[in-house]
Design a protein that fits this description.
With 762 residues, the chain is α/β, with parallel strands linked by helices. Among the domains are: 86 residues, Alpha-Beta Plaits; 58 residues, no CATH class; 183 residues, DHBP synthase (Alpha-Beta Complex), CATH 3.90.870. 33% of the residues lie in helices and 22% in strands. It has 23 helices and 30 strands. A hairpin with a 2-residue loop joins β23 and β24. α13 packs across α23, α15 crosses α18 and α18 packs across α19. The radius of gyration is 28 Å and the shape is globular.
């Protein structure tokens, strides 16, 4: 190349491995008539490029502007280097460096090109259930180490045939260095088996699986990050059988439907929901039900919403091609356990549930549940952040020390900080059994290894009995910092919004251990990353029976009535009191007064539970948050007058009295006001109360930034109307979009708060 004038070394960081980035660079260099080479490294992609300066500048600008669809570039750095007199542009083998900072792509749905080949009878991969390319397919769940090369994935067991190898080696091919590349001749294979052993393989196995689903059987289907339990969603008896065997009484079951047109037959889809449904991440999206549909009532009983996703693997498309309106695709586990990942584990744990297993011989290295989102006013809000999004980091405002945060007890995730990135793990689940705890430990080990992070400090919750806390305390190799639960909620939202300094924090949820030993959950904080003060809180009331009060909201209703009316409790002429046993109610009142197994709680979640029970919506719950969800869904439309409310100054802030709110609810019940109107007034009261309280705090502190976090903000009515009201009052309001507002986002807040505390103590 006679006109070479200069050379540059270009380092590209971000998600640039396993997404077709090197072939993209190769083609870009060829188009610019440039020479040099490109390679994967432990920190990203490194390019040596030689040519005229103006062409090199055009080349570097195009790296960001024309990057492949799955690439996420965080930095492009370049510097002059000596020319090597290259005569062509090459893709060279991966280079290992001392440190690792390469970002790993999450698993993504099958792309349009592969889907076309899947259904093309003339294509050599027609109906092959593991078709993929550099633009789609498994990533995080099959990787053991970086750089992302085939020998470091679960595809290392499959030697490519000559045709696949030729694609893999051709930089102009869509499958160049697609690490899971395979075909029917050389790749993984599906197999159907039951308790008696193997039955069928390949196409015959898929065909028989579809037949059995049509007959009402329950089939465990191996996917990207673990097993699903599948059943025909139109077969009510089959769905009930699945619930009975899985021990999942009423919690909605996820649906997978073949296309948008089919989904529209049973659920409403707006343009924002359509966008996220069809995104490469393919999460479960909450969609409002249609009044009548073919979907079995048992799929989502007493709920206005379906959780729906489109197929994201070739195998899903092949199954749904047999004419199903939808399949239930729920996590392959017993309730409260992690999803089955290994075949031996699936055979053992899913045998009592599934009639057969549709498995395959590509190992899963990391279990990863489906993500769940809800679109509200154009914003994607996570209820669970997992497959499709992990391990993409949350980028922070500034560099941080290396921190490992162990998360909460429920909806657990862990978080690792590295420089300006926070890596929040996939959904781990509720740390209430050995299997989930082992998943928790293995996730920490895996992330530390593939991200090359050696933590300097470990963070956890204040609660002494959480398994995550016990784990953190057992790590005597690291300094320990404990972060209060609701402080972590607020810092989590601050971190993703790049906020520093003090804010007014609204932290509303069901349970969190307070420094005073009581259960918090209706908290207004003045907070910054490294410290907080409690500015206001709901009046603490007893939780008679402790955890039993969470499972039985009627207990909280009795507690709030006793707190509000004292001995006049049984004089109230309301249906709720007629529906419960008076002697049992008196026992609960006595427990509260004598402080017998009745810890105090300021939780807004428990207040929602109590009001739901008073309205006759839910005396018992089958899953966490069920009563609060039904209270939200019951709320009528339009404006509503707030009940009376007030707060008073006390030694530790402001105590918000709940008695006036309960008095208002009871007065409406006595008048025979319908539940939808009472629910709407209750929501209106909370919105008026907390917006007024924030205004008073602004007068005292000059703070005009309000941060909202906690599981209660999954309530769309509460969160959206409160946010609008605060904005009308001139506040800048910050919520969560990158991680869930529930306890799935706690680990991020713990990590950033601990980093600030660690820095201030240094």
């Amino acid at each position: 190349m006679a006109d070479v004038l200069t050379a540059r070394r270009v380092q590209v960081r971000g998600i640039v491995q396993g997404v077709g980035f090197r072939p993209f660079i190769f083609k870009l260099a060829e188009e610019g008539r440039l020479c040099g080479h490109v390679a994967n490294t432990s920190s990203g992609v490194q390019i040596h490029v030689e040519g005229p300066p103006e062409r090199i500048e055009t080349f570097i600008k195009a790296i960001r502007a024309q990057a492949p669809p799955l690439a996420q570039i965080t930095a492009v750095d370049s510097r002059p280097v000596a020319c090597g007199n290259s005569t062509e542009f090459k893709i060279i083998p991966s280079q290992r460096e001392a440190g690792r900072s390469a970002l790993i792509s999450p698993d993504v749905a099958i792309c349009a090109d592969c889907l076309g080949e899947l259904s093309d009878p003339q294509d050599r991969r027609n109906a092959y259930p593991f078709i993929n390319c550099t633009n789609c397919g498994p990533r995080y769940t099959i990787i053991a180490d970086v750089p992302y090369d085939r020998p470091k994935t679960s595809m290392r067991h499959f030697q490519m045939c000559p045709a696949c190898q030729a694609e893999y080696d051709n930089p102009r091919d869509r499958r160049f260095h697609a690490q899971p590349n395979a075909c029917e001749d050389c790749g993984p294979e599906v197999a159907l088996e039951d308790v008696n052993g193997p039955l069928l393989r390949g196409d015959a196995a898929i065909r028989e699986t579809a037949h059995r689903l049509d007959q009402g059987q329950i089939i465990a289907v191996k996917g990207l990050g673990g097993y699903h339990l599948a059943v025909d969603a139109a077969n009510n008896a089959a769905v009930k059988r699945l619930r009975r065997r899985k021990h999942r009484e009423e919690k909605p079951l996820a649906l997978m439907a073949p296309d948008l047109e089919t989904i529209r037959t049973f659920a409403h889809i707006d343009p924002d929901e359509r966008e996220v449904l069809t995104s490469p991440q393919r999460p479960i999206v909450l969609l409002r039900k249609r009044a009548a549909s073919a979907i079995a009532p048992a799929v989502s009983p007493r709920n206005a919403w379906f959780g729906v996703m489109l197929p994201y693997t070739p195998l899903h498309y092949l199954l749904l091609a047999y004419g199903f309106t939808a399949l239930v695709m729920t996590s392959g586990n017993l309730s409260e356990e992690p999803i089955a990942m290994a075949d031996t584990d699936a055979r053992r744990r899913l045998a009592p549930i599934a009639d057969a297993l549709l498995t395959h011989n590509r190992e899963i290295y990391q279990r990863c549940d489906d993500s769940i989102v809800r679109k509200t006013h154009g914003v994607t809000r996570f209820l669970r952040r997992s497959r499709g999004y992990v391990p993409v980091p949350v980028f922070l405002r500034r560099r941080q020390p290396a921190v490992l945060a162990c998360g909460a007890e429920l909806k657990n995730t862990v978080c690792l900080l590295k420089e300006d990135r926070a890596f929040v793990s996939q959904h781990i689940g509720d740390l209430e059994n050995l299997a989930t705890y082992e998943f928790f430990e293995s996730t920490i080990d895996h992330l530390q290894r593939i991200l090359d992070i050696a933590p300097q400090v470990i963070a956890c919750d204040l609660h002494p009995d959480y398994l995550s806390t016990r784990y953190a305390r057992s790590r005597d190799d690291l300094p320990l910092i404990q972060v209060q639960h609701h402080h972590a909620h607020i810092v989590s939202a601050m971190a993703e919004n790049h906020l520093e300094g003090r804010v007014i924090g609204l932290a509303f949820d069901g349970t969190g251990y307070g420094p005073d030993g009581t259960i918090w959950g209706g908290e207004v904080l003045i907070a910054e990353a490294g410290r907080f003060e409690r500015a206001a809180y709901l009046t603490p009331v007893p939780m008679p029976g402790s955890a039993a009060a969470i499972r039985s909201p009627w207990r909280m209703a009795v507690s709030y009535l006793a707190h509000t009316f004292d001995d006049r409790l049984h004089d109230l002429d309301i249906p709720f009191l007629q529906s419960i046993d008076r002697k049992q109610a008196d026992v609960l009142v006595t427990m509260g007064r004598k402080k017998i197994n009745a810890p105090l709680t300021s939780s807004l979640g428990r207040l929602f539970d109590g009001v739901a029970a008073l309205l006759g919506l839910r005396h018992q719950v089958a899953f966490e948050g069920q009563a609060a969800m039904e209270l939200e869904m019951t709320a009528g439309d339009g404006d509503a007058e707030a009940y009376a409310y007030h707060w008073e100054a006390v030694d530790d802030g402001r105590r918000i009295e709940v008695a006036p709110i309960i008095e208002g609810v009871v007065a409406d019940l006595i008048k025979g006001i319908p539940a939808p109107q009472i629910s709407r007034r209750f929501h209106a009261t909370l919105i008026a109360l907390f917006s007024a309280l924030c205004s008073e705090l602004r007068q005292e502190t000059d703070l005009d930034r309000v941060v909202m976090s906690g599981g209660a903000f999954q309530n769309v009515l509460l969160s959206t109307v409160l946010e609008r009201q605060l904005e009308r009052q001139g506040f800048r309001v910050y919520t969560q979009r990158l991680v869930p507002p529930n306890d799935g986002g706690i680990s991020l807040g713990q990590a950033v708060a601990a980093a600030a505390m660690w820095a201030s103590a240094a």
